[in-house]
Design a protein that fits this description.
With 601 residues, the chain is of the alpha+beta class. 35% of the residues lie in helices and 22% in strands. The chain is built from 19 helices and 23 strands.
């Protein structure tokens, strides 16, 4: 009996021994895996459980004018949030917050009653608003600093269609803010620190900071003072003629720098959501329009520079031209002031005769006209660093059927943008060179060092310098004795051209709706600046010489004063202006409207 009990105990001991050996082997194997094979990974995972990583957004760079005046910058901002579980009286707290946040009480109360642990009430708010809310000590309501800050446009509406605006997270959505997003946006940094299980920093834990990088500053070619002047002139002109819209451009001809690019109406980037989407448009680059008689510059250039027509050549001074079964008319019934039966190219430009321009184009021919349209770049984008630019709408010459060859001569049946037309006139001012328009002067880093500088860029030579000089003399005569006496500036020589074109919508010319425009070069005896003004759908008057020329005169005068250009002489007497060369639909286009689709006119 004792021997049997002893055997049973021995068996149990052996079993226990092997169980312990097995457990020890498994523990040893696990210890080997944990300590040697996976030790580093597990140690890193353990550390990660007690380490928090926070992204820190880089501050967005500023946008400034050529002299450093700030158009857009970033300032500290806060977000307002609620923890609905801790809100004691949703109705009372909503009533207190709604006026401060400038939202409806019902909307705030709905968020305070939401079945969630966290909800935003407002974002991108100024610090003062956050401090005001904190002083109210509302249960469940809190504020925190926005990582990206608040985008502020201290100039308000001034230059808004150029500068653009940003979204809630400070991403560029329009204008320079959009096209230079990669330059303006800062680089994010990180804060890594040891924490407990509740993500609270440990008193003596490690903390590593990878500093964020502030975005670069974009320095515009815009002069804030001239931008303000342009917008002021446009606002007064639009009001005086109850017009729908207007735009103005000031170019430094020799470099292509844009000193002002204004649109009216515009909007306040600080509250862009309050304005209609139409107000965001930079019409000077997005909306091609029929230019009317300002396009006669292209016809005159093609005629002179090709050598097909010279300054002494004459054309029959008639009011009507029959072509392909259709008729083209001048804008008025008079011929030449002197009663002559002939006119030169200079006369045609000075008195803005449509028939004469058509006769010139017919003599020049389609291929040559098409070549100079190409040289001026009127059918292509200018390459300005702004989003949404449209090319001109000009059919190739081999598609100019019927009266099109003749009407193109005076800017009918073609569409261009305001900026492309302004730089075409700038090529006259700088001796025949077409420049790429510059809207950005340079990029600077956070220390002020220049990272990128934008240099003047010649696109191509459009014409010989002699041709440019001859055309400049013709444009001076337009102001001195032609359709634009209202563009004259006392003490300065002025050159330019009027334009009055009927508006096309859905392939049809709209009765009573015109674009009045004027493009001028000042001072004409020392060509330096091109000033462009157009006014859409003015009421009461619509000729370019009546509506746009006075606006040009006021803006150009401010440009000359601002740029320190001293006057040289007193303005002389002007001959009576004759007509305005308004581009009204020809019989050809009237018939075509009845028988063709838009785009075939």
């Amino acid at each position: 009996m004792k021997e049997r009990e002893r055997s049973r105990l021995r068996a149990r001991a052996i079993l226990v021994f092997w169980v312990l050996c097995t457990i020890t082997s498994l523990l040893a194997a696990r210890l080997y895996v944990v300590q040697l094979r996976e030790g580093r990974a597990l140690a890193s995972a353990a550390m990660d459980q007690h380490r928090a990583t926070f992204d820190v957004s880089g501050r967005r760079g500023s946008i400034v004018d050529r002299f450093g005046t700030v158009f857009a910058s970033t300032s500290p901002a806060i977000q307002v949030f609620a923890q609905p579980d801790e809100v004691q009286d949703p109705r009372a707290e909503a009533a207190a917050l709604a006026p401060i946040l400038r939202v409806g009480r019902a909307s705030v109360e709905r968020k305070l009653r939401a079945r969630t642990t966290f909800v935003y009430l407002a974002r991108m708010q100024p610090e003062a608003l956050g401090q005001r809310i904190e002083r109210m000590h509302l249960p469940g309501i809190g504020t925190a600093e926005e990582p990206t800050g608040l985008r502020v446009d201290p100039q308000g509406r001034i230059g808004s269609t150029v500068v653009g605006f940003t979204g809630v997270d400070n991403q560029g959505l329009a204008g320079i803010e959009y096209s230079f997003e990669s330059v303006l946006a800062g680089r994010s940094g990180q804060v890594i620190e040891d924490t407990d299980s509740q993500l609270r920093p440990l008193p003596f834990g490690r903390r590593t900071i990878a500093a964020p990088r502030t975005g670069h500053t974009v320095v515009l070619t815009i002069d804030r003072s001239l931008q303000l002047a342009a917008e002021d002139v446009l606002a007064k002109t639009v009001k005086a003629y109850a017009a729908r819209s207007a735009c103005a451009i000031v170019l430094r001809a020799a470099t292509g720098e844009i000193l002002a690019l204004a649109n009216w109406p515009n909007y306040d980037p600080n509250h862009y959501a309050r304005s209609p989407i139409e107000a965001y448009k930079n019409r000077a680059i997005t909306d091609p329009y029929e230019p009317g008689s300002t396009f006669k510059l292209v016809t005159a250039t093609a005629a002179l520079d090709s050598g097909i027509v010279n300054s002494e050549d004459t054309f029959a001074a008639v009011n009507v031209l029959d072509i392909g079964g259709y008729r083209i008319f001048n804008a008025d019934d008079g011929l030449m002031p002197s009663g002559r039966s002939y006119e030169t190219l200079s006369d045609i430009v000075t008195f803005s005769h449509n028939v004469g321009a058509a006769e010139v184009a017919l003599r020049v021919g389609k291929p040559t006209m098409g070549e100079y349209i190409r040289r001026f770049g009127l059918a292509e984008e200018t390459g300005v660093d702004l989003p949404g630019e449209s090319p001109g709408i000009i059919d190739p010459p081999d598609q100019w059927f019927g009266s099109r060859e003749a009407t193109v001569a005076f800017g009918q049946g073609v569409s261009v943008t305001a900026l492309s037309l302004a730089r075409a006139y700038a090529s006259i001012a700088n001796g025949g060179l077409l420049m790429r328009p510059l809207i950005v002067r340079e990029i600077r880093d956070a220390t002020g060092a220049v990272v990128t500088r934008y240099r003047p860029e010649v696109v191509r030579r459009v014409m010989r310098p002699q041709t440019a000089a001859t055309l400049l003399a013709m444009l001076r005569r337009v102001v001195a004795a032609g359709t634009a006496p209202n563009a004259a500036i006392n003490g300065y020589a002025v050159a330019g051209k009027t334009g009055t074109a009927q508006i096309v919508e859905h392939g049809r010319y709209q009765p009573g709706d015109y674009v009045a425009s004027f493009v001028g070069i000042v001072p004409a005896d020392r060509p330096a600046y091109v000033v462009f003004v157009d006014v859409e759908r003015p009421r009461g008057a619509y000729y370019g010489g009546t509506v746009a020329a006075p606006a040009f005169r006021e803006l150009a005068r401010r440009v000359l004063v601002r740029e320190g250009v001293a006057p040289r002489h007193a303005a002389g007497d002007f001959d009576a202006a004759i007509g305005d060369g308004v581009t009204k639909p020809t019989e050809a286009h009237a018939a075509a409207q009845r028988n063709t689709t838009p785009g075939q006119l």
